[in-house]
Design goal:
This protein is α/β, with parallel strands linked by helices and 699 residues long. The chain contains 23 helices and 21 strands. Among the domains are: 99 residues, OB fold (Dihydrolipoamide Acetyltransferase, E2P), CATH 2.40.50; 157 residues, Rossmann fold; 159 residues, Rossmann fold, CATH 3.40.50.300. Helix 8 crosses helix 22 and helix 10 runs parallel beside helix 11. Bound molecules: adenosine-5'-diphosphate and magnesium ion (MG).
């Protein structure tokens, strides 16, 4: 039998077919259940009527009650407004309308008592309320009960149809006061008791119409937990499903190549963090389950070496490995960086990108399918239809946030059996976000920098300081160092960007003129080969200054470069600034990052710059970024379900998030397939959630 919640919205008192159409079309509300899950985003506190004499402060929402005394139009032109004086016997306050003057004039009735709700504007002690909400208190109709009034998200379309907040309030009220009102519990008893949660039925009711603030908090506490609990549960169920249904390759020995490399060719001692993460990966390889691990490590923390050693384990167990990078520059850099090491072990590594010539490509593919290539490095070209491996055992995805879902899906189909997957990212994600976004992946963190690195000195300078900055650059170049000089993308148009980059070059070379100073210029309009040529010149120290747009953002490694200058730094996001800064500080010399801005930054812009100046810690920066932008804007969150959270905000509900994760884990440990009677509420809740594709299923 269908539940009361599944009743069509048109059958609710006060709705009817026409308004039901609007609710469906505008807000996706088809049933009573939908209506009750259309949560208010705030409440107006109508539990009190203030006296006008008691009003203090500015920007405060208040409810007043009194009579309208005098009315009229004041001002002219832009300042033309309609003014009424509200008097409650203790004092008076101005009510002001700038729009809808004719309508207000018709509606207002001097002498009638009104309940007034609005935001106080306190201008040098003179208080007024602009565009207040008015309710006439008529002597023979009962006044609206004083309470917390929910405010719902609305669309313009609803407003045009004169379906305002009041309509939704009444509808929700009719639903929760219906004799049939009921909402099934979806949390197990044990959890309700442990956390002293109120029932789902009460929580929903209180969320719409709280008796008071503390009841509202109780409702939110429970519903936030519930949201996060189900998000975690879905991640963990997916992981469980994957593990039960797919076998992972077992790499249970560390063999000759790994040992040879580790003992004879390792160019430096691994950091403790690198060793720990490598051990975590080795453990994954032995379990018989597919490894899906996210390796987070700040720029320069040495992720490539961890990838290299992991690939050697795959090879020692008779498999091939591949490593994917988001751009040709990066793929080539990885290839060049790994080549000598790999060759010294008598193994074969090859590079496959979009610009690999057709003939060469054919030969490569043949060798790959016959197992003559041990490691293939490349861009998306690695996952094109015709790329067949003989035995693909490990896929390393570098800087994953540049890879789309569809690309990962293709990769998934490549191997005959599922290869292990390591996803490497230098975009640090705060713990809370990682738990929500990558809830079904294991996460490792390389939280230690190789020894001897000096923290990068970061400064903020205004454009007027350019002469001094140029002198500083000159000095660094005289010491044998190299300089990155970055300009932001100005427009979507590549042509305009190129123009602005060229005028940037003119500006810089006006101070530091060629041929004394040698330049490379890199931008999005260059062909891959031209870009590589320019990058290589800089890498080989044939040039001193690399003028670039953000194409150099990720992964580029030129240890001799010691200064990163960023023009119009206020235009960059924090993650991007941190990535750019990570291009320097890779050698043993002291490195610098100079952030140049115009004067007069926005508050947000100032915070970003100040954060960069204050810290080098990518995780701290990511946390500020999350605060400033919200999870929806961060890389990789789009498909994660974080955005479907209606109440919980992972920025502020960390402890709830952790609790929900722990409880979901404990629950599945006891009842993996949700077969026990006390898992019934969970099972029926999950059955209601439409089957969505979860992106992480495929990586
Ligand atoms: P990222 O984590 O940003 O990908 P890389 O793997 O490119 O960092 O490493 C940055 C630099 O640090 C490289 O030049 C690399 O050879 C070097 N490196 C990596 N690990 C160590 C280590 N344990 N000790 C010294 N240098 C290291
Ligand atoms: Mg890297």
């Amino acid at each position: 039998m269908p539940h009361w919640l599944d009743t069509g919205i048109e059958y609710l008192k006060g709705v009817g077919p026409q308004r039901a159409e609007a609710l469906k079309k505008e807000l996706g509300i088809h049933t009573l259940g939908d209506l009750l899950s259309h949560y208010p985003f705030r409440h107006e506190d109508r539990s009190q009527v203030y006296t006008i004499a008691s009003l203090r402060g500015d920007d405060v929402w208040v409810q007043l009650q009194g009579k309208i005394r005098a009315i009229g139009i004041a001002g002219t032109g832009q300042g033309r407004r309609y003014v009424a004086i509200l008097s409650d016997g203790t004092a008076e306050i101005e009510l002001v309308w700038f729009k809808g003057i004719v309508y207000v004039d018709k509606m207002l009735n001097p002498g009638t008592t009104y309940r007034v709700y609005g935001k106080i504007n306190n201008f040098k002690g003179k208080m007024s309320i602009a565009h207040p909400e008015l309710d006439a208190l008529l002597p023979n109709s009962p006044s609206q009960p004083l309470s917390m009034v929910p405010v719902y998200p609305l669309t313009e379309g609803m407003r045009r149809k004169k379906l305002e907040n009041k309509f939704l309030v009444t509808a929700a009220q009719n639903a929760v006061t219906s004799p049939l009102f009921n909402i099934p519990e979806n949390l197990p008893n044990a959890i309700l008791e442990k956390y002293k949660f109120i029932s789902r039925r009460d929580a929903i009711k209180e969320l719409h119409f709280p008796q008071n603030l503390s009841r509202l908090e109780e409702a939110k506490r429970r519903l936030k937990f519930e949201e996060l609990f189900y998000l975690q549960l879905r991640h963990l169920l997916l992981k469980g499903f994957r593990n039960r249904n797919y076998k992972g390759l077992i790499f249970n020995h560390v063999g000759t190549h790994f040992n040879d490399f580790y003992n004879n060719h390792l160019p430096f001692e691994l950091t403790g963090a690198q060793k720990r993460v490598l051990k975590e990966i080795r453990n994954d390889f032995k379990t018989g389950l597919q490894c899906n691990r996210l390796i987070q490590g700040d720029v320069g923390s040495g992720k490539t070496m961890v990838a290299m050693l992991s690939m050697l384990i795959a090879i020692d167990n008779g498999y091939q490995a591949c490593m994917m990078a988001p751009t040709e520059i990066l793929a080539t850099q990885h290839f060049v960086g790994l080549q000598d090491w790999v060759n010294s072990l008598g193994l074969r590594i090859e590079l496959l990108t979009g610009s690999t010539p057709k003939k060469k490509r054919e030969l490569l593919l043949k060798d790959l399918s016959e197992g003559n290539i041990h490691i293939l490095v490349g861009t998306h070209a690695l996952i094109e239809q015709d790329v067949q491996y003989q035995k693909l055992g490990l896929v390393v995805i570098d800087e994953q946030h540049r890879f789309g879902v569809a690309q990962r899906a293709k990769l998934w189909k490549k191997g005959q059996s599922l290869p292990h997957i390591l996803v490497m990212t230098a975009t640090p994600i705060p713990r809370t976000l990682a738990m929500t976004v990558y809830g079904d992946l294991e996460v490792s963190v390389i939280d230690e920098m190789p020894a001897g690195r000096k923290p990068i000195v970061t400064v903020h300078r205004q454009e007027s300081m350019r002469p001094a900055i140029m002198d500083f650059i000159k000095n660094e170049i005289a010491k044998g160092r190299q300089i990155y000089y970055v300009f932001p993308l100005i427009e979507d148009s590549e042509k305009l960007d190129l123009n602005s980059l060229m005028s940037g070059y003119d500006m810089v070379s006006g101070y530091l003129s060629p041929p004394e100073f040698k330049y490379s210029i890199v931008h999005g309009k260059l062909k891959p080969a031209e870009k590589d040529a320019a990058m290589n010149q800089f890498k080989n120290h044939q040039t001193d200054i690399l003028i670039a747009t953000t194409v150099i953002e990720v992964g580029v490694n030129v240890p001799n470069a010691s200064v990163m200058v960023i023009e119009n730094a206020e235009r960059f996001g924090l993650a991007q600034l941190h990535q750019l800064r990570g291009r320097v500080g890779r050698g043993n010399e002291q490195s610098y990052c100079i952030l140049i801005t115009k004067p007069g930054l926005s508050e947000n812009g100032y915070k970003r710059i100040a954060t960069m100046v204050r810290t080098n810690d990518g995780f701290e920066i990511a946390k500020v970024d999350l605060e400033l932008r919200g999870p929806g804007e961060l890389d990789g969150t789009k498909q994660s379900g974080v955005l479907e959270l209606k109440l919980a905000d992972i920025r502020h509900d960390e402890s709830t998030l952790i609790a929900s994760r722990v409880e979901a884990q404990l629950w599945l440990e006891r009842d993996e397939l949700l077969q026990n009677p006390d898992s019934e509420p969970i099972k029926s809740e999950l059955a209601k959630i439409p089957n969505r594709t979860v992106w992480s299923k495929i990586s």
